[in-house]
Each structure stands twice: as C-alpha cells, then as structure tokens.
Amino acid sequence: MAVSIAIDGPAGAGKSTIAKLLAAKMNYIYVDTGAMYRAMAVYFTQNHVNPDDEREINAAVSNVDITIEYMDGVQQVILNGDNVTGLLRTEETGKMASKTSKYAAVRSKLVDLQRKLAKTTDVIMDGRDIGTTVLPDAFVKIYLTASTQARAKRRFDELTQKGEQCNLEEIAADIESRDYADMHREISPLKQAEDAILVDTSDMNIEEVVAKLTQIIEEKKAS
Question: How far apart (Å, rounded) are the C-alpha atoms in residues 111 and 99?
Fold first, then answer.
C-alpha cells in the first residue's frame, strides 16, 4: 500500500525545501504541485487555448494527463507522454499558469491527478491544502510553520546572498499579506488539518526539521 505524506503551511515556511530533502532521504516521490500547474499551462499554450475564456479552459482540461517521474534523481514532468520539464520555467509558461490556475476545472483536474499519483507510489506532497483537500487520508500530515519574523529573515538572507537589495520590514509585510490571502481564499483556504502535527521551525535549521519529520513518520509507521 502506497504511503502519502502531506506537508502544509504558510509561505516561506520551507515546505518545498524540506519536502524534497525528506523525499530523497526516504526514497519517496516528491510531488511538485506547482510544476503540475505549469505543465497544464504548457498544454494550453501549445494548443492555443485562450486563458481568459473559462469555457475553453473547461473543455481543454479533459485532454490533459500529467505525471511525475525521476531520472537520475532529477524530477521530470510528463505531459501526455512527452517530457516538458524544459518548458516549465519559461516566462510564457509562468504567465499562462498564473492566469489559468484560478479556474476550478484546472484545480479539480490536477487534484485528481495528484490523488492518482498518491495511490500508486509513496509520495511527499507540499502546499496549502494537501492535508485538508488533496490528500485528506494521508498517512501523516504535517503543518509546517514559523513566525513571520523568522520567515522574513530567511527570505531576506536568501535575497541578500543573491546580491539583491531588499528591506526586511517590507518582506515581513508581504508575508503577512500572503498569509491573509491564503487563509481567506474562497477555494481550499490554508488551515491546519485537525489531525495534522504542528511543527514550528522558527528556531530550527533545515537538518533539524528533516530529522524531526523523519522521526514523526517513523513513529507513525511503528505504531
């Protein structure tokens, strides 16, 4: 039986970084849900679907199949049998994904595909509503969070290392704004699932978080 791990939490909590490291350590598939939305956008672009016409979008999604594979440890995104990994980070794809990810039909289709993946292989999936909506029956649910100040400092350090000029207070304000939007959106708002384990990473480094989550999963398996 396939094991699924759901990791939810607010922006800047380190969900993707932790999920990737945990998946590699445990030999699970890391499901990059954002990459799946971009793959859907590639299909729309290639087939000249109007991103502003919801009826066109609704008609197109039934023709899409997306899955995730790994080659030499690197994630590959497969769209209708073709590897489209190299097209996911283009500006054109990003703009199309931004316009089309809001549609209920796109979301519903991708949730179905994500659940299909979780039924056939051991997965770790991160997002805003994985434990509450996408994988409500996940084997383990984690709600990964950190204080606004801790998340802002991490983002500040990340941007500074890249040589970008930034303001810590502005980053913190942006994080608070995103938190509010995520928690109050109409479809699948961000919230901790009732059976999710809260892990506050404010005073933890990456290695400590991975170790903590590994411990939680192993204890659940043992029980």
Answer: 18
